Amino acid sequence: MPLIELNNITKQFERKIALSSLSFHVKKGEMVALIGPSGAGKSTLLNTLAGITAPNTGTYLLDGVPIQHYKKRKELAKKIGVIRQQFDLIASLPVIQNVLAGRLGEWGFFKSMLSLFLPQDKQLAANALNRVGLLDKLYDQTSKLSGGEQQRVALARLLVQSPAVILADEPVASLDPARAEDVLAMLTKLVKEEGQTLVMSLHSVEYAKKYFSRIIALRDGEVFFDLPTSEITKEHLAELYLLKEMAL
Amino acid sequence: MMSKIKIPSKKRRFSFVAFSILLALALLAGSWGHIFYAERANFFTLFNEQNAEYAKKFFSGLFGLQEEKPAFTDKEAWINAGKLTYETLQMSVMAIGFATIAALLTVIPAARNIADGTLTVSKRWYRWILFGFFRVIYIFSRAIPELVWAMVIVFILKPGILPGAVALALHNFGILGKLCAEVIEDTDARPIRNLASSGASNAQILFYGIIPTVMPKFLTYILYRGEVIMRTSIVVGFVGAGGLGQQFKLSLSYFHYTEITLLLICYIILVFAADFISEGFRKAAK
């Protein structure tokens, strides 16, 4: 049974069609890159997958259950974790609290209050930070960290949250190439180690080819192609990114 | 040779700004003209001999030139003034404390982005009612100046520092509430919404997301209003709310000029100390 099952999803904003009859399946453990020109609907698709945006029509089964049936945030947080371009973290809190925020779905109110003063599940946070190589920054204020380090803290939070599916919306768009590669390599490695499923939108086709086994290309809210990385040719890509004016 | 292009001409319109500047200039010229030509007023009549005599008497009184024993050389008077200074300090600290507690308890429902649910990704029908309710209370309490609050409250309670503190707190509660609600409205919603996707409940979002983000800015506003309260405490004292202000009014009525000097010295020390302390706190909060 596929973990993510989208059937004929459409989404309209005002008059603009963001997604039109979109269908695809993602199996457990797959690594999928979403590519496509700006405004193709990548972010809308990821928000739909995260359950933040409700589609107008179509069905979305997450682990065999319609997404609307996940009434509680805590249940959904076990299935889906999100990492974004930046601004993921609470800048005024220390790193450890941002990492432990991944546990908020598990904790009750009183435990989470206590943790603000006496961090709970410290070992878990320390392990996660160690895996992203930031153990020494445990007690630093998050706003003092660089952009790349902040994304790694966000990764540590995902490790602590440990969802079945990770959705990443342009997680490296605001980083320089070296930091971007670093974060991507780390994220894909961790996802493999944990046996999780990853869906990531990317601007860079190069990164998509390097780190992902399957690439879904979106254009004008539709699936333009959905192929294993090895079968993608230059012609595919040229056509995908063709400017509208030239196509006419 | 450079080719001549036609520069697009700027469209001149009689805008609101231009109109108000012209109106202000016309008012200025008109009113000064009225004062000089219609009323035949002369600025220099203020400096006549009579007024000079009064001023001389007052200032020499302040410096205690004619007195045998000016208050500011008297140990007893210093002790008394010290007590009043301490009372004023108590009044200010109580006032900022009351105002802060009341504002913090009401500020979250009073922010627009909490009411419409954009910050916490959740909607409740009663939130708009709470929003309107607290915002109206804020407007009401800050619309009435602290002096008027003090007059009313001294009328109900007996004169003393508690009514002064309550009066100062009531006025500043409305100001703090509005300023802090605007801080919440200006926060970046993205990190806070991300907490929701890691499974945090609304209460957890409040303590892990909203409060840590807004607290440093809240602190700046609270300290700033604290300084203002310290300075205004002397004014509410005039109407019987205790402290340095009340004594100042009494000394003025009894023509005890040197006591006024002493009280002013204490007051200035107090204001300097308040500025110094709040500056220190602000630096520490950064």
Description:
By secondary structure, chain A is an alpha/beta fold. Chain A folds into two domains: 4-71 and 164-247, Rossmann fold; 94-162, no CATH class. Chain A has helices spanning 42-49, 73-79, 95-100, 109-117, 122-131, 147-161, 177-194, 205-211, 234-240, 244-247, and strands at residues 4-13, 16-26, 31-35, 57-62, 65-66, 80-83, 165-169, 197-201, 214-219, 222-228. In chain A, the strands form two sheets. Chain A has a six-stranded mixed sheet, with helices on both faces. Chain A is globular and about 55 Å long. Chain B is mostly helical and 286 residues long. Chain B has a single domain, classed as MetI-like fold. In chain B, 76% of the residues lie in helices and 0% in strands. Chain B contains eleven helices and no strands. Chain B has helices at 16-38, 49-62, 75-107, 112-115, 127-143, 146-156, 161-185, 189-197, 202-241, 243-253, 257-285. In chain B, helix 3 (75-107) crosses helix 10 and helix 7 (161-185) packs antiparallel against helix 9. The A-B interface holds A 50, 52, 73-74, 76-78, 80-82, 84, 87-93, 97, 101-102, 104-107, 109, 112-113, 116, 157, 161 and B 121, 188, 190-192, 194-201, 203-204, 207-209, 212-213, 215-216. Chain A: This is Phosphonate ABC transporter ATP-binding protein. Chain A: One of its GO terms (cellular component) is membrane.
- Distinct helical segment count of chain A: 10
How is the biggest beta sheet of chain A arranged? Answer: 6 strands, mixed
- Report the mean per-residue pLDDT of chain B as an integer: 87
The proportion of residues forming helix of chain B, as a percent range, comes to over 70%
Query: Hey, roughly how much beta strand do the residues of chain A contain?
Result: 15-25%
Which superfamily, in CATH terms, is the homologous superfamily of chain B?
A: MetI-like
Helix fraction of chain A by DSSP (H/I, runs of at least 4): 25-40%
